[in-house]
């Protein structure tokens, strides 16, 4: 059971990382330097602002591995489609901005 909890935590973390990239992930160059310079100043979604995330695991009988990566790639497209469904506005660049 501890392994399953680890798997769920990895996927949730990947989803939060994907949401952070879709909402805040912007790299700017200032005076020839990349801003932010490091992850300590990189904006991320905090737990108090994160949605509830449910991860369902289907037991295929195969060994577990590489599960953290599967949560990130689909987040921005799903969020973009949800924004389109709610507003009718199709956003085509990251980070998303309705402004």
Describe what you observe in this structure.
This protein has 99 residues and is mainly alpha-helical. The chain contains 2 helices and 2 strands. A two-stranded antiparallel ribbon has the order 1-2. It is globular, with a radius of gyration of 16 Å.
Largest sheet at a glance? 2 strands, antiparallel
Overall strand count: 2
Overall pLDDT metric:
88
Q: Structural class of the helix and strand makeup?
A: mainly alpha
Shape estimate: globular
Q: Order of strands across the widest beta sheet?
A: 1-2
Uncertain regions spanning at least 5 consecutive residues = none
Distance linking N and C termini: 45 Å
Helical stretch tally = 2
What proportion strand? Answer: 5-15%
* C-alpha Rg (nearest Å): 16 Å
Tell me the layout of helices and strands.
Layout lengths: L1 H23 L3 E3 L2 E3 L39 H13 L12
Antiparallel strand pairs: 1-2
Keywords:
two-stranded antiparallel sheet, mainly alpha, 99 residues, 6% strand, 36% helix
């Amino acid at each position: 059971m501890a392994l399953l909890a680890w798997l769920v935590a990895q996927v949730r973390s990947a989803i939060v990382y994907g949401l952070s990239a879709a909402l805040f992930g912007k790299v700017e160059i200032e005076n020839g330097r990349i801003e932010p310079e490091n992850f300590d100043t990189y904006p991320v979604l905090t737990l108090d602002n994160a949605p509830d995330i449910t991860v369902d695991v289907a037991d295929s009988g195969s060994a577990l591995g590489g599960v953290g990566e599967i949560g990130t790639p689909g987040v921005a497209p799903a969020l973009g489609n949800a924004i389109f469904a709610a507003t009718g506005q199709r956003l085509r660049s990251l980070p998303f901005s309705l402004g």
